[in-house]
Write a sequence for this structure.
């Protein structure tokens, strides 16, 4: 059973949204939780260091919830496997690998990155495997899973 409360965040809302398969709202809630955990709510974005040093316990909870409710279709561990299959190394940015990864998970179309995730991302289970959650600098997170 996944722990839904830590001293840094409460994951009950994310659990409920994912259970209801509200993928867009779950993606948004994931980002809000990550901002809260890193104390970056006021800024509204995470820095590279925030990703690099993101707490492992909270990261595992986010991943477990996404993979559980999507039956292994979405989640950070799913993305991690795709990253490695693309030739990526854990914790290291590689633009060539990132582009290949983006093509596979559907973050790129016809060689271009999606520019308006709210309208272009696919918030359904028929999205490519690993499509959600949509996080930037994710390669920093994989070695923590």
């Amino acid at each position: 059973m996944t722990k839904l409360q830590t001293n840094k965040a409460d994951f009950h809302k994310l659990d409920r949204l994912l259970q209801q398969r509200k993928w867009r709202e779950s993606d948004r809630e994931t980002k809000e939780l990550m901002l809260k955990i890193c104390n970056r709510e006021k800024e509204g974005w995470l820095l590279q260091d925030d990703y690099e040093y993101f707490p492992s316990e909270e990261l595992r909870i986010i991943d477990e919830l996404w993979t559980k409710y999507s039956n292994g279709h979405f989640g950070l561990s799913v993305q991690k496997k795709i990253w490695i299959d693309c030739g990526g190394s854990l914790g290291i940015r590689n633009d060539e690998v990132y582009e290949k990864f983006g093509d596979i998970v559907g973050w790129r179309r016809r060689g271009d990155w999606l520019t308006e995730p709210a309208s272009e991302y696919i918030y359904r289970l028929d999205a490519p495997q690993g499509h959600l959650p949509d996080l930037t600098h994710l390669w920093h997170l994989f070695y923590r899973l």
